[in-house]
Amino acid sequence: MPGLSADSFVLSDLSTAEVEASERVHGALADDLRRLVDVAIRTNAGEDDVARVRELVQQATAVLEQDASPDPAGLKFNHEGRSWNWGNTVVGVRNAMAPPVVLQWGDDGAVRSQVTLGAAYEGPPGCVHGGVSALILDHLMGETASAGHTRLTVTGTLTLRYLTPLPLGDVHVEARIAKEEGRKVTVVGRIGPGGPGSEPAIEAEGLFIIPRWASDESLPSDVGSLD
Amino acid sequence: MPGLSADSFVLSDLSTAEVEASERVHGALADDLRRLVDVAIRTNAGEDDVARVRELVQQATAVLEQDASPDPAGLKFNHEGRSWNWGNTVVGVRNAMAPPVVLQWGDDGAVRSQVTLGAAYEGPPGCVHGGVSALILDHLMGETASAGHTRLTVTGTLTLRYLTPLPLGDVHVEARIAKEEGRKVTVVGRIGPGGPGSEPAIEAEGLFIIPRWASDESLPSDVGSLD
Fold first, then answer.
1. Minimal CB count within 10 Å: which of A124, A167, A226, B36?
2. Three-state SS sequence of chain A
3. Distance CA A90, CA A143 (A)
4. Does the pLDDT of residue B2 top 60, yes or no?
């Protein structure tokens, strides 16, 4: 698999305490950016106000660019067994595009999440974009296949059945392992409006693969799904 | 289908010229925001710089919030046959989460797009999140099913086959109609690295449905896919 191997994981000398301090600082910025992206869609501001806002945004960008890596965040890990993928589109702590999705690992092996999706996640009028549901399900199902990050998996196939439109607002997602056979893990998932136990708007089934190279013992212990 | 009907489309009294002027102003802001979201992932800025940036972002948000709708952007249309969905996660002109995807409609009925995906679209280290590929394919395939916005369709099922990791950077997406049968349209799509003609990293097949209510003659002419 070109572009992906055991070398894709970068050992960092940050301690877990340092990682968590950094996540608090940059996670708060991502929260602010999420609000700005959202109101930029909903605003009726005229040309002059938008020009003023663009100046502020460009100033902010210049400050952050003074010292920035040219590379994406990637997946890093430390000697304490902590790993972090700050840029991930679904769960990345620094990524304002990520809703963000916070995973709840159940004792029953299921992975669940309660997410609020606003104006930036719209597809059909007032509804969650079908592809956003696919994005979240793909991620959550991959995490499920990784069985609590005890093994590394990649998506093989993913099938989504759209049953009914999903209104923007609170949504509940959950996934569980349906079958395991050698390096193949079948996961089923669903997303629906409101909280746990709601009727699904979309059902999904995915086949996740444990790649041969992922048995390499040099891999960090806490890696999980490569979504 | 709760939450979605012919009433979901809102007639606006904006002229097409006004819509396009507004798209230039707010589209430029979305471009700026996209750069800010990207560098917020890659920056090594320390706590003080991040605090300064948060102040700028909060000021910008306050300006836009002075006059903002509580509602998502929705899908609007005017008497000139122009429609717009500014908040759409894939193609929304005002949505900084949208890469954005600009559609190229081929004479052969295929829909193509050339997109550059940066740090905010990461899944596996250095690679496009599998769910982001699903998001873009779902949208492009839905647009394809709409046959140049001559009919309205919704996603029924979508199946994705992940062949190889897709590196971040330039990607090419294309889709075409494979079969039509009554209200069912089968579309195939692919996404791969680089430009047209590259090997696909992900192949997809989708079944799109023309809903019964979409034959309502009160629908605007330029609506297309409900993704």
1. A167
2. CCCCCHHHEEECCCCHHHHHHHHHHHHHHHHHHHHHHHHHHHECCCHHHHHHHHHHHHHHHHHHHCCECCCCCCEEECCCCCEECCCECCCCCCCCCCCCCCCEECCCCCEEEEEEECHHHECCCCEECHHHHHHHHHHHHHHHHCCCCCCCEEEEEEEEEECCCCECEEEEEEEEEEEEECCEEEEEEEEEECCCCCCCCEEEEEEEECCHHHHCCCCCCCCCECC
3. 11
4. no
Q: Which ipTM was obtained for this model?
A: 0.93
Q: Which of B44, B59, B65 is opposite residue A56, by nearest beta carbon?
A: B59
pLDDT at B147: 85
Interchain pair A164, B1: CB under 8 A = yes
Candidates A64, A116, A144, A198: best to mutate against B (most CBs of B within 10 A) is A64
User: Please, are residues B83 and B76 in contact by the beta-carbon 8 Å criterion?
Assistant: yes
Mean pLDDT by 10 residues, chain A (227 residues): 65 96 98 98 98 98 97 94 94 95 91 97 96 98 89 93 96 97 96 93 96 66 63
pTM: predicted TM-score of the whole model, two decimal places: 0.93
**Sheet architecture: strand order including A83-84:** A9-11, A75-77, A83-84
CA closest to A136 among chain B residues: B131
Using DSSP bridges, classify how beta strands B75-77 and B9-11 pair: parallel, antiparallel or unpaired.
parallel
How large is the average pLDDT for residues B146-172?
Answer: 93
pLDDT digits (tens, 9 = 90+) for B134-155: 999 999 999 999 887 788 898 9
